[in-house]
Amino acid sequence: MTVQAPANVVMIRPNRFHPNPETAADNRFQSVPGDSADEVANRAASEFDAAVGRLRDEGVGVHVFQDARDDTPDAVFPNNWFSTHPGGHVAIYPMFVPSRRRERRSDVIEMLKADYRVQVVTDYSGLEQDGLALEGTGAMVIDHIGRIAYVARSHRADPVLLERFCTNFGYEPMVFDAIDEDGAPVYHTNVVMTIGTHFAMVSLDMIKNAARRAEIAERLVEPGRDLIDLTHHQIAEFAGNAIELSTPTGLMTAMSSRALAALDKSQIALIERSARIVPLDIPTIESAGGSVRCMIAGLHLAKRNTNLEKGPK
């Protein structure tokens, strides 16, 4: 495992999945599937199971938890409510809309404490009462090598809370404005940026300020990474929402089939110089406005034992 690419992850199997109307106001990546609620929920669960199977086949350790609620349509995206960090640190986050606050669950945190070497759990979720939100590794794309937290300004990334997180966890905040072709702010940083060990993908054209754009490009390549510049179209196809993982046979990059189809041959070649691409077919889940990165909460923690659950809990 490299510090950037975890070998183990947490994923939440959806129960009553559907695009969340509460988050649609600022998530322009959402769409309406157009089928019955049962059909949509069943398809999402099937896509999830296939994705977990593919990751396990590749050698990724996947802890699966079943969502049992009917009022948490975005539960399949757990990377927003908690994150883990080298040295045994875990953070729990305040969420922007009420339905997403119900996704937090103590059994996930208790599993982390039992199976991994967790030293400190820092819980920021009480700050929701003050109207603050910082939606985990959706709002922040973290460079664990350079110790930088890249953050696009939005309702879901409060600047005061970001500064507090960065002070507590030892990251440098790198804040910027990211807008789409219509001039609308991007709701989560992880739809415009992916950071791997030896490559980074970002849509530089979406970063509004030219000086900040140049600085971000410079900092991303500083550790010797290849920089892949994504177009607006590729971002809309979720090409920026990928995650690098460690496996017994080397690094891999998980992204959706839709995202991979949007990349050109030269971009794919740059990724595959260091990490083979594993596409996951999740079109129904993507209708909620998130893709593969959002589904995967990486565990940057040392294992206490090797017992991983092999199916839903």
From TrEMBL:
Q: Which domain of life is it from?
A: Bacteria
Signal sequence range: none
Q: Which Pfam families match?
A: DDAH_eukar
PANTHER family, per the entry: AMIDINOTRANSFERASE (PTHR43224)
> What name appears for this protein in its UniProt entry?
Amidinotransferase
**Native source species:** Roseovarius nanhaiticus
